[in-house]
Amino acid sequence: MEFLRDFNKPHTCKIEYIINETPTVRTFVFSDTIMSKSLPGQFAMVWIPGINELPMSIMVSNEKNKAAFTVRKRGINSTALYNLKPGQNIGVRGPYGNNFNIKNGNILLVGGGTGLVPLMRLLKFVTPSNNVKLIIGASTQNEVFFENLAKILLKNNVHDIIITTIDGSYGRKGLVTDVVSELLNTTKFNGIYTCGPELMMFHTIKLAVSKKVFIQASVERIMKCGIGICGSCSMNENLICKDGTVFNGNYLLENNEFGFSYRDKSGSIIKYTSKV
Amino acid sequence: MTPNLFTRIGPISINNPTILASGILGISINVFNRIYESGAGAVVTKSISVLPSDGYDGPNMFSIGDQGWLNAIGLSNPGVDNFSKILKQNKKIPIVVSLVGSNEHDFVNMIQKLRNMQILAYEINLSCPHVEKVGLDVGDDPDLVYRIIKNIDSITEVPIIAKVGLGSTNYLDTVRAACDGGADAITAINTLRAMSIDIETMRPILGNKIGGLSGKPIKTIAVRCVYEISSKYDIPIIGCGGISSWQDAIEFILAGASAVQIGSIINYKWLKIFSDINDGIIKYMSKKKIYSIGEMVGISKRF
Questions:
Q1: Average pLDDT across chain A, whole number
Q2: Under a CB-based contact definition with an 8 Å cutoff, are residues A157 and A173 in contact?
Q3: Comparing C-alpha atoms, which of B105, B199, B132, B124 is closest to residue B164?
Q4: A66-72/A89-96 β-pairing
């Protein structure tokens, strides 16, 4: 009775199976027609009963009418999700938010960590005309994931998958932005799409905008309601849940919070301290 | 003569009667500005407390159908010190600062820190239905309400609005205490204490289990409260609760409200709701040959 569903109320789904992506990252697959049709950049509010509700980018599944969430265990909430077993329930509401505008021709995807999730969904929407370059950034070899999935999703496209690790244990040693910088000198891209740590996105956008290349990023902020009411995800005049998650790069560069600060659960502004 | 949306809520004057309700969106000066530019006559901040608060774990808000919502955000806010830095940037926006606290000392402490800022009014939250020792717990104690309002009134020239809701005490006693203490206006009502259980997992859905009901289902209750307050007391009222259209706004004004606050409907109609309501009110006034909001306030009491 999907047509009767109120997409603003948590809808209970059973976790069907779990994919171990890395020692700290797992993907949880469940059946849900509505979530399976979500667009790249959209998110769901995911209820972990008894724990909390988290905004999560909606991961693709190879199977029809299924969707997934990919989580890295970090804090109390993400670890609770990470520890769920097949057969256990989660609640989902959404999908919410806008989506990437996928250009024809040469496109470049730049992702780090679980920021790769919306990019994997984007790969589901590329057309055979797209020539796709994908850069996957990780700290070390056993934290690289989605490489094989990306190959499968891109089997009908001319493509190139480039891995970077900070310690050089796999792929190229260094940061994704080193590769972005090189590629921008050799290839003319029609669109660049990025999701991952904010400072990685910030520097990728700066590189692309300096070459006047169209770029979009999917931005993350703390969210509580997901529907444009609570204000937790404010970034300057924007609400990430309603106006995003996807923004054009040149717009983000005019924003004096993106790349500089975020808000904690209380709404207090916290400045980023580390450099990319 | 052409109809005019200007309205007076006692000492508070605003260009139109649509106000962003407290708890909605209000922590970023740029978002306030965007809402003001979208047509709101004024904006109310999230309720500010002495110390920062993270609020509750989620789920914090979801639909119960029929444009009704359940929420328990838990009064998350950056605290008065951080918020005063945000407020310092205000040049032109009519901002009502909502304050929440447990006793007169909390409120006095916060107001001293907000001196000399561009503030249209204070709205004292006496009615949040799901956080202990503040909000409705305070509103349910008319003696405490009197002391709080009286103490605030003695230290500031900024107008004071008391926001009341339906708790375990007769809310009209809370209104009376606020009036006696020196409140300049009343906002009525807040969300109503409510809950919802997921039958599949057999658990309460809200992280806090109990929260507040907002949106369309509470509108007729709110209209009744505005009507009762305006029938009983001579104090300006701001109507709040389930206002989703210009027709709803006019209904509140006819019941006795001088202005209205807009909240949950923002999810459906987003920020154009303010200009939509204002346009509808103007057309209605033209049709009825009414030229000011003031003429309309409380007309239904004649019958």
A1: 95
A2: no
A3: B124
A4: unpaired
Query: What does pTM read for this prediction?
Result: 0.95
- Write out chain B residues lying below 8 Å of A56, CB-based: none
Q: Which residues of A51-86 are buried (b: 16+ CB within 10 A; e: fewer)?
A: bbbbbbbbbbbeeeebbbbbbbbeeebbebbbebee
Alpha-carbon radius of gyration of chain A: 18
Q: Are B149 and B175 in contact (CB under 8 A)?
A: no
d(CA B74, CA B31): 21
Contact residues, chain B, for A232 at CB < 8 Å? 27, 76
Token output for B270: 């987003």
pLDDT digits (tens, 9 = 90+) for A39-51: 999 999 999 999 9
User: Which residues of B, range 142-171, sit inside 8 Å of A by Cβ?
Assistant: none
Compare CB distances from B61 to A50, A51, A229 and report the shortest one's residue: A229
The verdict on B203 touching A (C-beta cutoff 8 Å) is yes
Catalytic, B225? Answer: no
Each residue of B212-227: pLDDT tens digit? 999 999 999 999 999 9
Region B131-153: mean pLDDT is 96
Residue closest to B139 by CA, chosen among B96, B197, B82, B183: B183
From the first residue on, what is the mean pLDDT of each consecutive set of 10 residues in chain A (276 residues)? 79 97 97 97 97 98 96 96 97 97 98 97 96 97 96 96 97 97 97 97 98 98 96 96 97 95 95 71
Distance from CA of A120 to the nearest CA of B (A): 27
